[in-house]
């Protein structure tokens, strides 16, 4: 039995055990994956400069275009994201489900759609495991660049607003790449507010001693299927400990946010786990 067949049978068995109808199966496959939600979060820390107070950071992740998610859906998503008028846009990995199988015209259409996104502080992205998978590394890099996104692969940039600065860093994918947090932060000012993008949330334990305030991740899809009294049905490697929402890790501490993401993978279901994108609003404590 393949892993896909096992998960599908397990999903069906759990639904049967808790007495859910065929209508619920239809809902999980055809309705909930389209119920996009916006989450609004506040990041309040003492080292956020006054100039960055109320800056809106838009995070979206795991679109998995090509697996039950098409360009018209992606186009509608980008229209909605643009309507929020973010100051900074971050994509935390997995644009296509299988990049090496995507026709040229779909790649071009995706880049054209991405190019419509606009944010005064920039548009940045990191690799996810599907971006590297299937020899997709260079393909995705090319078309994300065409879409106006800057790759952060074990590197950082300094974002400036008025006379103040913060640090934005990104890691290579932890499953199929070679993440290196020390390289990513080399030369960065450790006293600045530092935001790190890393696709896999469980990798945070390798980041714990670095001068990072917030890690933004995706990858988990929130489990895609959550069963009452049972929990997450399946989560991928490196998303076993941290699956969705906020966590605080270590004595520093680093705060971790895990997005449920937009699309699906392996199986086209979502149940009690609606797709999401997130607006993180920075708040300077000196303005309270």
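Q: What amino acid sequence fits the structure above?
A:
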């Amino acid at each position: 039995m393949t892993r896909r067949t096992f998960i599908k049978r397990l999903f069906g068995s759990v639904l049967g055990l808790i007495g859910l109808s065929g209508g619920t199966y239809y809902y999980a496959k055809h309705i909930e994956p389209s119920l996009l939600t916006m989450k609004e979060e506040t990041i309040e820390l003492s080292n956020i400069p006054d100039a960055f107070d109320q800056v809106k950071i838009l995070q979206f992740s795991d679109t998995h275009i090509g697996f039950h998610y098409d360009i018209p859906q992606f186009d509608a998503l980008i229209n909605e994201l643009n309507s929020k008028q973010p100051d900074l846009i971050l994509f935390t990995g997995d644009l296509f489900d299988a990049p090496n199988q995507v026709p040229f015209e779909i790649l071009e259409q995706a880049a054209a759609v991405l190019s419509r996104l606009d944010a005064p502080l920039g548009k940045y992205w990191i690799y996810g495991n599907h971006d590297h998978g299937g020899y997709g590394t260079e393909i995705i890099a090319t078309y994300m660049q065409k879409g106006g996104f800057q790759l952060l692969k074990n590197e950082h940039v300094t974002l400036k607003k008025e006379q103040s600065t913060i640090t934005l860093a990104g890691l290579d994918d932890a499953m199929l790449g070679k993440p290196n947090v020390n390289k990513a932060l080399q030369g960065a000012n450790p006293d600045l507010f530092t935001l790190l993008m890393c696709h896999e949330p469980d990798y945070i334990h390798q980041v714990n001693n670095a001068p990072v305030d917030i890690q933004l991740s995706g990858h988990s899809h929130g489990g895609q299927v959550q069963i009452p009294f049972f929990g997450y049905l399946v989560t991928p490697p490196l998303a076993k400990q941290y699956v969705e929402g906020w966590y605080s890790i270590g004595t520093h501490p680093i705060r971790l946010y895990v997005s449920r993401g937009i699309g699906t993978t392996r199986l086209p279901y979502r149940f009690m786990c609606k797709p999401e994108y997130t607006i993180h609003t920075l708040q300077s404590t000196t303005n309270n």
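Q: And what stands out in the fold?
A: Residues 10 and 233 are 9 Å apart (CA to CA).
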